[in-house]
Amino acid sequence: MFSFFKKFKKPADAPLDTQEDEAVQAAEDEEASALSDEIDEPGLEREPAIDAAIPQEPESEPAPVPDAPKPYWQGRTASQWTRVPETDEASEEVLPPPEPDPVAKKSWLSRLRNGLSKTSSNLTGIFVSAKIDEDLYEELETALLMSDAGVDATEFLLESLREKVRAERLTEASQVKDALRELLVDLLRPLEKTLMLGRAQPLVMMIAGVNGVGKTTSIGKLAKHLQRFNQSVLLAAGDTFRAAAREQLTVWGERNNVTVIAQESGDAAAVIFDAVGAARARKIDVMMADTAGRLPTQLHLMEELRKVRRVIAKAMPDAPHEVLLVIDGNTGQNALAQVKAFDDALGLTGLIITKLDGTAKGGIIAAIARQRPIPVYFIGVGEKVEDLQPFSAEEFADALLG
Asked: Which of 15, 62, 100, 332 could covalently link to 148 via disulfide, CB atoms 3.0 to 4.6 Å apart?
């Protein structure tokens, strides 16, 4: 139609090469003017332009750029220690972590049972061919006290057990043992809190404890666990008063290929301050600070730990994010006293209980649950790296009364 005759006009200032070009241009202009006059006559309507009649495809918007996938550990917890899961390249979605290795899980439960065997034998032996009478409760009370469960936890468990036996009309010793196991799980479950990663970068962890509890060794084991969870780790040798502690932490750093910030001499707070700055500059995921062993009765030394905490807060306002206390499971009620003292001084967020292997005082966790219910993040039953595992109330109760 008429729009087919639309021609491209050269700009007015464009030069014409020849007179022939000028003649052609004039003819085209005359033809276009005649058509325009014809269309403008009354009774005739201009036909819409052909390019307007053809539906136009909408302009395609640029494809959205997909968000970068979140780290697979984001939102996961320390109870899900596992190898890095494989990624489905087609969907670009991170697959869920694989199920725990049943062989490794069975091996851990076996080591836990063996470690708590002394405590377990004192408790489970009571229910062999026993009658449900007052003698049974008295023997059970003695066994719980001997395991360092403490008076408060022992009375709580026995009173709850009596009520449960009456309410459910239990008549067999094995039923009473199962009832005690359920009560123990309920008592310990509030301590079953997992360590959440990814809340800050770096996640600053301050590790405290008296000398000899396995504090530095626990830091080395925990660093290895964190690496398996795809976390970069930096260690600060803040125990500047004991040369062996610095050397021991350095060995763990070399073994795990982890950088250790240390000084041969100097203030512990200054060393940890530098370590926080280094972790932030290097975008490290987790920074763990070892501190000097302190007896809770030495108030001037405990004040130095408070100073370390204040200095960490100056280096990073919301740090430390975790304040962990390492205690020796063999020390019984003394461990409970340490928990109370360090919690009052530092505000503990979690516990690591070591050396539960071969102890007859495994009931100390029940005492902690009643007196100062601070989460137990990890328990240790040996010297190997895999002997430090997240605490589970059911697994612990099974090891004691299974």
From this structure: 332
